[in-house]
Amino acid sequence: MTVYEPGSVDDVARYQAKKLAKEGDAAFARACGEFARNDAFRSPNETIIANVGRDRDKGAMFARVPTGTETCTFCLMLASRGAVYHTRKTAGEWRHFHRGCDCKVVPSFEGDPDAELVQGVKPRELYERIVLMERQTGLSFADSKASRKLSDFIALHDRDWLLTGKVSEVGYEDEATQAKKLKDKDHPAEVRVANRLRVHGFRTVFVDDEVSVPDEETGRLQIVGLPDLDTGLEIKNVSSAKSENTISKYIGTAKKKRGLKQIVIDVSENDNLSDEEARRMIVSSLRRHSMSSALMVNHEGEIETIFYPQK
To answer: What is the pLDDT of residue 310?
Structure first.
């Protein structure tokens, strides 16, 4: 079941040829190569879908299984359904493969939609992880308008956890970073936050958050602040703060860090603030610094997303 269409290939090549003058051969080749790759990946998937449709009366079903590199919210939602066959009317969504999609469609004769067709990928448990992330964000995977925010949230997680539920350990990008971090008196508090995050599937690999880079104008070296984790996550253990000023300071400082994706405010060790007080302070601080959201670890060790809607 090839999806190759000469007309489409010709259209893509002509459109991408516009890059030759400005970006050179590499950009043109990369774009055309990606298009060819997508066709090559989709063809076997379409074959399985078509064959299962032909043999559905014999008990054949199919499931979408993500491989973890380019898994979007839509892919995870379909994968969590397990091996189900959709009618011709509703099969369109199963044929939706975004650019760079590396999901595989696999056949099943198990009779159980939640059967483990690929080792380590269990649809029922994947569904439970999706429900967990929906609870943590207050967003729904079924809502297309929420896909961008959910995709950003998913990007903070460990890929193995997303697909198999395996919880990773706290790590470091290299030995030099580990040695530097272990000398920092504040690092044990950061590690405690990281351990609370990893059990919820977050990737917790520390990076050197202070690096020297040349100034674009003067060429002189300057210190640039980076988020604590390699996903762009900044973590703060707010263990003793009593006022909003401390939380506001943390959020304001984090905003200035290059590559920041999200900040976590952990109040689980703080006996001075209730969860509700902490939520109000975070919302007020987000408004002050024109930021849309932050994560909070509450006193139960659960993850919450605190939103401040911007105009």
So the answer is: 58
> 103 with 191, same domain?
no
- Alpha helix positions (H), the chain: 6-16, 19-54, 73-79, 123-137, 147-154, 159-164, 175-182, 187-198, 244-255, 275-288
In terms of domains, do 36 and 113 share one? Answer: yes
226: tokens are: 């980076």
Same domain, 178 and 286: yes
Q: Are residues 22 and 75 in the same domain?
A: yes
Q: Is the pLDDT of residue 242 over 70?
A: yes
Domain end, chosen from 127, 158, 182, is at 127
pLDDT digits (tens, 9 = 90+) for 35-56: 888 888 888 888 888 888 888 8
Reduced to 3 states, what is the DSSP secondary structure of residue 244? helix
What's the pLDDT score for residue 297? Answer: 98
Domain assignment present for 79: yes
Residue 61: φ, ψ to 5°:
-135, 175
Total domain count, the chain: 2
Q: Which residues pair with 225 in a beta bridge?
A: 210
Do 300 and 179 share a structural domain?
Answer: yes
11: left (phi over 0), alpha (psi -120 to 50) or beta: alpha
* Per-residue confidence (pLDDT) for residue 5, from 0 to 100: 80
Look at the pTM and tell me if it is higher than 0.85.
Answer: no
Mean pLDDT of 255-284: 96
First-to-final CA distance of the chain: 48
Contact present, 297 and 194 (Cβ < 8 Å):
no
Residue 240 lies in a domain: yes
Please indicate, yes or no, if residue 208 is contained in any of the structural domains.
yes
